[in-house]
Design a protein that fits this description.
Layout: H1 3-29, H2 37-48, H3 66-89, H4 91-95, H5 99-108, H6 111-121, H7 133-157
Helix pairs in contact: 1-3, 1-7, 2-3, 5-7
Transmembrane segments: 66-90, 102-128, 140-160
Protein name: DUF2938 domain-containing protein
Keywords: Membrane, Transmembrane, Transmembrane helix
Length: 161
Protein backbone atom coordinates (compact mmCIF):
# COMPACT_ATOMS: atom_id res chain seq x y z
CA UNK A 1 0.00 0.00 0.00
CA UNK A 2 1.41 3.38 -1.01
CA UNK A 3 1.66 6.41 1.24
CA UNK A 4 -1.04 8.13 -0.84
CA UNK A 5 -3.36 5.16 -0.30
CA UNK A 6 -2.71 5.24 3.46
CA UNK A 7 -3.35 8.97 3.60
CA UNK A 8 -6.60 8.53 1.67
CA UNK A 9 -7.64 5.65 3.95
CA UNK A 10 -6.99 7.82 7.02
CA UNK A 11 -9.25 10.56 5.68
CA UNK A 12 -11.87 8.06 4.56
CA UNK A 13 -11.89 6.38 7.98
CA UNK A 14 -12.26 9.66 9.84
CA UNK A 15 -14.97 10.84 7.44
CA UNK A 16 -16.94 7.61 7.67
CA UNK A 17 -16.71 7.64 11.46
CA UNK A 18 -17.97 11.24 11.55
CA UNK A 19 -20.93 10.20 9.38
CA UNK A 20 -21.62 7.28 11.73
CA UNK A 21 -21.46 9.67 14.68
CA UNK A 22 -23.93 12.05 13.01
CA UNK A 23 -26.23 9.03 12.66
CA UNK A 24 -25.80 8.40 16.39
CA UNK A 25 -26.74 12.01 17.17
CA UNK A 26 -29.90 11.61 15.09
CA UNK A 27 -30.79 8.39 16.93
CA UNK A 28 -30.30 10.05 20.32
CA UNK A 29 -32.50 12.98 19.26
CA UNK A 30 -35.16 10.43 18.34
CA UNK A 31 -34.86 8.93 21.83
CA UNK A 32 -32.96 5.81 20.73
CA UNK A 33 -30.09 4.83 23.01
CA UNK A 34 -26.65 4.47 21.44
CA UNK A 35 -23.24 3.30 22.59
CA UNK A 36 -21.59 5.30 25.34
CA UNK A 37 -17.97 5.45 24.17
CA UNK A 38 -16.84 5.95 27.76
CA UNK A 39 -17.56 2.24 28.21
CA UNK A 40 -15.10 1.45 25.40
CA UNK A 41 -12.51 3.58 27.16
CA UNK A 42 -13.31 1.88 30.47
CA UNK A 43 -12.90 -1.52 28.87
CA UNK A 44 -9.55 -0.48 27.34
CA UNK A 45 -8.39 0.88 30.69
CA UNK A 46 -9.16 -2.41 32.39
CA UNK A 47 -7.54 -4.30 29.51
CA UNK A 48 -4.30 -2.40 30.18
CA UNK A 49 -4.52 -3.70 33.77
CA UNK A 50 -4.92 -7.27 32.50
CA UNK A 51 -8.68 -7.72 32.57
CA UNK A 52 -10.42 -8.25 29.21
CA UNK A 53 -13.79 -9.74 30.16
CA UNK A 54 -16.50 -8.14 32.30
CA UNK A 55 -19.90 -9.21 33.50
CA UNK A 56 -21.15 -5.65 32.93
CA UNK A 57 -18.69 -2.96 31.88
CA UNK A 58 -20.97 -0.21 33.20
CA UNK A 59 -20.54 -1.63 36.70
CA UNK A 60 -16.74 -1.85 36.43
CA UNK A 61 -14.59 0.71 38.21
CA UNK A 62 -14.28 3.88 36.09
CA UNK A 63 -10.81 4.61 34.68
CA UNK A 64 -9.09 7.94 34.14
CA UNK A 65 -10.01 9.70 30.90
CA UNK A 66 -12.32 6.89 29.79
CA UNK A 67 -14.44 9.18 27.65
CA UNK A 68 -11.43 10.50 25.73
CA UNK A 69 -9.96 7.00 25.37
CA UNK A 70 -13.29 5.66 24.14
CA UNK A 71 -13.58 8.27 21.41
CA UNK A 72 -9.94 7.86 20.41
CA UNK A 73 -10.39 4.09 20.10
CA UNK A 74 -13.65 4.58 18.18
CA UNK A 75 -11.91 6.76 15.57
CA UNK A 76 -8.86 4.48 15.49
CA UNK A 77 -11.07 1.51 14.68
CA UNK A 78 -12.84 3.52 11.96
CA UNK A 79 -9.48 4.32 10.37
CA UNK A 80 -8.32 0.70 10.71
CA UNK A 81 -11.47 -0.53 8.97
CA UNK A 82 -10.90 2.01 6.16
CA UNK A 83 -7.28 0.89 5.74
CA UNK A 84 -8.49 -2.71 5.53
CA UNK A 85 -11.08 -1.77 2.88
CA UNK A 86 -8.53 0.14 0.81
CA UNK A 87 -6.15 -2.79 1.09
CA UNK A 88 -8.82 -5.13 -0.23
CA UNK A 89 -10.24 -2.99 -3.06
CA UNK A 90 -6.99 -1.37 -4.16
CA UNK A 91 -5.94 1.93 -5.60
CA UNK A 92 -8.38 1.75 -8.51
CA UNK A 93 -11.31 2.07 -6.12
CA UNK A 94 -9.75 5.18 -4.59
CA UNK A 95 -9.77 6.81 -8.03
CA UNK A 96 -13.36 5.81 -8.81
CA UNK A 97 -15.13 4.75 -5.60
CA UNK A 98 -18.29 2.67 -5.86
CA UNK A 99 -20.87 2.09 -3.15
CA UNK A 100 -21.08 -1.69 -3.00
CA UNK A 101 -17.61 -2.61 -1.70
CA UNK A 102 -17.85 0.09 0.98
CA UNK A 103 -21.39 -0.85 2.02
CA UNK A 104 -20.57 -4.57 2.07
CA UNK A 105 -17.48 -3.90 4.20
CA UNK A 106 -19.53 -1.72 6.56
CA UNK A 107 -21.94 -4.63 7.04
CA UNK A 108 -19.05 -7.05 7.63
CA UNK A 109 -17.58 -4.78 10.31
CA UNK A 110 -20.66 -5.29 12.49
CA UNK A 111 -19.06 -8.59 13.50
CA UNK A 112 -16.55 -6.64 15.62
CA UNK A 113 -19.04 -5.35 18.18
CA UNK A 114 -21.44 -8.28 18.01
CA UNK A 115 -18.84 -11.04 18.30
CA UNK A 116 -15.94 -9.38 20.09
CA UNK A 117 -16.63 -6.17 22.01
CA UNK A 118 -20.11 -6.94 23.34
CA UNK A 119 -19.16 -10.36 24.73
CA UNK A 120 -16.08 -8.91 26.43
CA UNK A 121 -18.07 -6.03 27.87
CA UNK A 122 -20.77 -8.30 29.27
CA UNK A 123 -23.52 -7.95 26.67
CA UNK A 124 -22.98 -11.43 25.22
CA UNK A 125 -22.58 -12.61 21.65
CA UNK A 126 -25.03 -10.80 19.39
CA UNK A 127 -26.23 -8.78 22.42
CA UNK A 128 -27.72 -11.97 23.90
CA UNK A 129 -27.41 -10.71 27.49
CA UNK A 130 -29.31 -7.49 26.82
CA UNK A 131 -33.07 -7.02 27.28
CA UNK A 132 -33.63 -6.65 23.51
CA UNK A 133 -30.96 -8.61 21.60
CA UNK A 134 -32.70 -8.54 18.22
CA UNK A 135 -33.30 -4.80 18.37
CA UNK A 136 -29.72 -4.17 19.49
CA UNK A 137 -28.30 -6.32 16.68
CA UNK A 138 -30.47 -4.48 14.15
CA UNK A 139 -29.29 -1.11 15.49
CA UNK A 140 -25.68 -2.26 15.17
CA UNK A 141 -26.26 -3.54 11.65
CA UNK A 142 -27.89 -0.30 10.54
CA UNK A 143 -25.19 1.80 12.19
CA UNK A 144 -22.43 -0.19 10.50
CA UNK A 145 -24.30 0.08 7.19
CA UNK A 146 -24.29 3.85 7.68
CA UNK A 147 -20.54 3.55 8.31
CA UNK A 148 -20.25 1.72 4.98
CA UNK A 149 -22.12 4.49 3.20
CA UNK A 150 -19.81 6.91 4.99
CA UNK A 151 -16.80 5.03 3.64
CA UNK A 152 -18.14 5.50 0.13
CA UNK A 153 -19.07 9.18 0.55
CA UNK A 154 -15.72 9.96 2.15
CA UNK A 155 -13.91 8.13 -0.64
CA UNK A 156 -15.77 10.23 -3.20
CA UNK A 157 -14.59 13.38 -1.43
CA UNK A 158 -10.94 12.29 -1.20
CA UNK A 159 -10.74 10.37 -4.50
CA UNK A 160 -7.16 10.19 -5.77
CA UNK A 161 -5.96 10.05 -9.37
Amino acid sequence: MTLAMLQAALLIGVGATVIMDLWGILLRRLGIATLNFAMVGRWAGHLMKGRARHEAIAKAEPVANEVAWGWLIHYGIGVLFAVMLVGMVGEGWLGAPTLWPALAWGVVTVAAPLCFMQPLMGAGFFASRTPTPGRNCLKSLVTHSVFGVGLFLSAVVVAID
